[in-house]
């Protein structure tokens, strides 16, 4: 008997007991169905019900509930009804979870990032390329990772993904490496590597000066120039970062403080130091450095007064 | 028919039990859901808001009740109820309520010690309403005041920094009050022993302590000058640590960001570039040891509550604690209470004067008594409205005056008695952390032995530095591992924003606010953190190399 007919056929009856038994059976069926339907496991997913599932997945990912996030994304990825965009979000979600969860599974991350590339949209390809490169770097495959990051810059030159690739490539070139044989357990990046990283950031800033990560790149350059004690270049980049607009207030306060401190202590440019200490006092009155900025402002003004007085004394002697 | 159904069902007891349990569960869930929605039986159709906090003092409760009454007068369709939970079990209670999805609409957040510190960001992300879309709009309850057109965030004295969750790069908390710490004293007793003006310098303060001790002996009274405890002692120590180490900022802050990081402080102590025998550091420890002679015997094992009890009983003349205790101390003490700053050595002090930079700054304090709004609230918009009411210029002043706490809104005036608690903007932050990563336990044990007189300063330094050299390398690796976790967390958030920017369904719904702006913020925070990490590692390796050189030379 075909399955459909079997389901349609009446159930065999036991004489005298049929009605109550059927009722009990029906009750049992209702309870079982309710139990199955209540958590939503038995429902068929349509493309319109998948967006909330994706949102649940991203939400779970953002709160560190990675297993549940992966489950949600997998639920969408494996259904036939998902739209192309939903499939993209699900695969990207899976790749991201495996890549960035507390105990990363780089193999699976790589697998899903590779799947993304097959989706044939520019967004998917860009995320795939950036993701694969970053997985290599995270696994310590520096040469592979760096060449893939360079490929993102080459293949999608005007994209934010390329901007981010520049940041990660520079980071990889600057990063100290764990090395038990070295003092403190780290090996510091060599000069050539440092110079490559600096040039990379500077080239990107000349090519795309208004890119969304420009302020971050200038801050990165300033950090390195301070580390290398090249204070004129550090100052140049701090000023550029401030001009570009720093979104995080706390970081803007650090940049203003650094400009003032470098100008005063390293470059003896007291006029610039005065301007930036004043800016710090005006804009960041609720930070722990406020009073230091205020006293430094007084000190710098005193130094400027002394310099002015010395120049005043020196000038007539020039004329005589 | 019912009888025959019963006779038949009787034969299936398991099924019957299942049906009964299922029915009972449905009823319990329905009643709880109904109650959670604010519609307890016989209670009309008002929107009910519930606010949970651990401020059990009568004065605080009454002040909040008055605020609620005023709000309800303005909004007769709303009823606000306080849920008071003792601080000891508060974090566990909140945890259960959040997981069980029965949490109130508004919750005082941030308790739970170290565990709570780690878990709250996860709670915010999962259970609390992000406030980013509201904080840049004016608070409607400021209409007609100087703050009428000012964004809500900017009406706070700290620009709502106390509400910002750095790890999530979002606003989740609405602070109601601010707190500072001061030296409280028994005015009657101090005036009797010393005179009407409290000592302004450490020298006079020490003299006052001597006189108080002598007064106790003469009058056969059980009296200690200072109610020190393991907790209160830290406030003294930190005030003096700041005064003596503030000038180390420039030599130690190698990345010039204005903060001496844990590694920037530990690396030069490890290598010996900074020695604990240097005069400002030695002076710091010696001063605290000198002062601790006026604390109760075995003070480090006393709890905060025991110290407060000693003070309120009149068995101690002074105690350091926060402005949060002002009202309850005033009510419980049978003497006049006064508040002052911890006195510092004067510049003319021959022993300490030349090393003292100044007092500890409070310019960086953030709003406290922070309240979050839960996502599961059926009336989240009304809860937000209530919190905006509570943080309007007029109401924030009123409620804080009633609670005897400091308001958080610009222009709101505290009570006159609280003026000594106004945050001190003139001052410094400490620039050395003695403990060192990994050496915290050793520091706690050995420093107490020094402060209690069991070790000389040289013995303390010698023993502590042995532990320091042994423990700090591993401790620094731990700090760097934590840094990596922070960086990873930032990359997680950047990934959501990037996904939202490419239109990934679901990611756009989760990423509230402007994703492009948030992505820029996260990447800025990320590179800043990478910069600190790289600079810290360079500083550490250079100091570690320096530390190895003498060892190698002596090995030859």
Task: Kindly describe this structure.
- The complex is a heterodimer of chains A (320) and B (556).
- Chain A is mostly helical and 320 residues long.
- Among the domains of chain A are: 49-120, Serine Threonine Protein Phosphatase 5, Tetratricopeptide repeat (Alpha Horseshoe); 230-307.
- Chain A has 15 helices and two strands.
- Chain A has helices spanning 3-8, 18-37, 47-62, 66-77, 84-100, 106-117, 122-138, 142-155, 160-174, 191-207, 214-227, 231-244, 249-266, 270-283, 290-319; strands at residues 177-178, 186-187.
- A two-stranded antiparallel ribbon of chain A has the order 1-2.
- In chain A, helix 10 packs antiparallel against helix 11.
- The longest helix of chain A has 30 residues, at 290-319.
- Chain A is elongated and about 85 Å long.
- The model of chain A is unreliable at 1-21 and 36-43 (pLDDT under 50).
- A six-stranded mixed beta sheet of chain B has the order 2-1-3-11-6-12, with helices on both faces. A four-stranded mixed beta sheet of chain B has the order 8-9-7-10.
- Chain B is an alpha/beta fold and 556 residues long.
- Chain B folds into three domains: 46-180 and 365-421, 3-Layer(aba) Sandwich (D-Maltodextrin-Binding Protein, domain 2); 182-361, 3-Layer(aba) Sandwich (D-Maltodextrin-Binding Protein, domain 2); 451-545.
- The model of chain B has no long low-confidence stretch (mean pLDDT 90).
- In chain B, helix 3 (58-74) runs antiparallel to helix 16 (393-403) and helix 9 packs antiparallel against helix 12.
- In chain B, 46% of the residues are buried.
- Helix content of chain B is 52%, strand content 10%.
- Chain B has helices at 2-9, 13-36, 58-74, 87-99, 113-127, 132-135, 187-193, 202-218, 232-245, 249-252, 262-271, 279-292, 304-313, 326-332, 380-390, 393-403, 440-451, 457-501, 507-510, 515-555; strands at 47-53, 78-84, 106-108, 164-165, 170-171, 174-178, 181-186, 224-226, 316-322, 337-340, 368-373, 406-407.
- Chains A and B meet through helix 2, helix 3, helix 5, helix 7 and helix 9 of A and helix 1, helix 2, helix 5, helix 18 and helix 19 of B.
């Amino acid at each position: 008997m075909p399955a459909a007919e079997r389901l349609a056929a009446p159930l065999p009856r036991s004489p005298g007991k049929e009605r109550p038994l059927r009722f009990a059976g029906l009750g049992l069926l209702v309870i079982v169905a309710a139990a199955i339907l209540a958590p939503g496991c038995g429902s068929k997913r349509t493309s319109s019900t998948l967006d909330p599932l994706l949102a649940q997945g991203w939400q779970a990912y953002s709160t560190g509930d990675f297993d549940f996030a992966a489950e949600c994304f997998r639920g969408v990825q494996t259904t036939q009804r998902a739209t192309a965009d939903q499939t993209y979000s699900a695969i990207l979600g899976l790749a991201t979870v495996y890549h960035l969860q507390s105990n990363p599974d780089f193999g699976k991350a790589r697998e899903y990032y590779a799947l993304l590339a097959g989706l044939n949209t520019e967004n998917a390809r860009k995320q795939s390329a950036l993701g694969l490169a970053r997985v290599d770097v995270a696994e310590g495959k520096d040469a592979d990772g760096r060449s893939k990051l360079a490929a993102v810059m080459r293949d999608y030159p005007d994209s934010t993904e390329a901007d981010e690739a520049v940041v990660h490539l520079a980071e990889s070139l600057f990063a100290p490496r764990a090395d038990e044989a070295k003092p403190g357990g780290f090996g510091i990046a060599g000069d050539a590597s440092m110079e490559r990283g600096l040039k990379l950031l500077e080239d990107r800033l000349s090519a795309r000066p208004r890119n969304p990560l420009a302020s971050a790149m200038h801050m990165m350059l300033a950090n390195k120039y301070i580390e290398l004690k090249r204070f004129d270049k550090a100052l140049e980049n701090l000023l550029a970062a401030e001009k570009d607009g720093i979104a995080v207030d706390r970081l803007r306060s650090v940049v203003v403080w650094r400009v003032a401190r470098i100008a005063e202590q390293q470059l003896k440019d007291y006029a610039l130091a005065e301007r930036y200490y004043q800016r710090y006092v005006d804009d960041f009155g609720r930070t722990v450095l406020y009073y230091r900025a205020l006293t430094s402002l007084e000190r710098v003004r005193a130094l400027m007064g002394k310099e002015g007085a010395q120049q005043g004394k020196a000038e007539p002697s020039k004329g005589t | 028919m019912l009888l025959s159904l019963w006779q038949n069902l009787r034969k299936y007891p398991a099924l019957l039990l299942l049906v009964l349990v299922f029915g009972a569960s449905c009823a319990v869930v329905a009643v709880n859901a109904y109650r959670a929605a604010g519609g307890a039986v016989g209670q009309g159709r008002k929107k009910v808001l519930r606010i949970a906090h651990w401020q059990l003092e009568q004065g605080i409760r009454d002040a909040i009740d008055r605020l609620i009454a005023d709000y309800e007068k303005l909004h007769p369709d709303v009823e606000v109820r306080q849920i008071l939970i003792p601080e000891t079990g508060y974090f566990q209670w909140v945890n259960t309520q959040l997981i069980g999805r029965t949490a109130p609409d508004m919750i005082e957040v941030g308790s739970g010690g170290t565990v709570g510190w780690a878990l709250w960001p996860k709670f915010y992300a999962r259970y609390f309403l992000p406030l980013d879309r509201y904080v840049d709009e004016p608070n409607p309850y400021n209409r007609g005041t100087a703050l009428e057109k000012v964004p809500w965030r900017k009406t706070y004295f700290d620009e709502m920094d106390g509400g910002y969750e750095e790890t999530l790069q979002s606003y989740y908390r609405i602070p109601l009050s601010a707190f500072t710490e001061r030296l409280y004293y028994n005015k009657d007793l101090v005036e009797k022993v010393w005179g009407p003006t409290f000592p302004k310098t450490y020298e006079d303060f020490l003299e006052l302590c001597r006189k108080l001790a002598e007064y106790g002996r003469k009058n056969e009274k059980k009296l200690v000058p200072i109610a020190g405890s393991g907790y209160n002692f830290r406030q003294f120590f930190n005030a003096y640590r700041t005064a003596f180490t503030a000038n180390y900022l420039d030599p130690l802050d190698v990345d010039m960001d204005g903060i001496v990081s844990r590694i920037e402080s530990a690396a030069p102590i490890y290598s010996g570039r900074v020695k604990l025998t240097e005069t400002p550091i030695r002076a710091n420890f010696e001063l605290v040891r000198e002062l601790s002679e006026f604390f109760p015997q075995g003070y480090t094992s006393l709890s905060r509550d025991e110290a407060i009890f000693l003070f309120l009983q009149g068995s101690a003349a002074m105690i350091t604690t926060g402005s949060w205790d002002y009202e309850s101390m005033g009510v419980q003490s049978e003497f006049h209470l006064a508040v002052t700053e911890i006195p510092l050595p004067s510049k003319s002090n021959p022993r300490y004067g030349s090393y003292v930079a100044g007092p500890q700054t409070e310019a960086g304090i953030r709003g406290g008594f922070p309240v979050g709004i839960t996502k599961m609230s059926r009336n989240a918009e009304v809860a937000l409205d209530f919190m905006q009411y509570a943080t309007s210029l007029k109401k924030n002043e009123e409620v804080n005056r009633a609670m005897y706490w400091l308001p958080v809104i610009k222009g709101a005036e505290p009570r006159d008695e609280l003026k000594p608690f106004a945050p001190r903007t003139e001052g410094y932050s400490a620039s050395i952390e003695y403990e060192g990563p990994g050496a915290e336990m050793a520091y706690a044990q050995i420093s107490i032995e020094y402060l209690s007189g069991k070790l000389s300063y040289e013995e303390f330094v010698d023993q502590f530095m042995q532990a320091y050299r042994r423990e700090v390398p591993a401790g620094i690796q731990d700090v760097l591992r934590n840094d990596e976790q922070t960086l990873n967390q930032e990359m997680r958030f950047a990934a959501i924003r990037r996904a939202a920017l490419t239109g990934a369904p679901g990611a756009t719904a989760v990423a509230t606010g402007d994703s492009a702006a948030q992505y820029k913020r996260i990447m800025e925070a990320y590179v800043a953190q990478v910069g600190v990490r790289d600079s810290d590692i360079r500083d550490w390796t250079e100091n570690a190399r320096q530390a190895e050189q003498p060892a190698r030379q002596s090995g030859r």
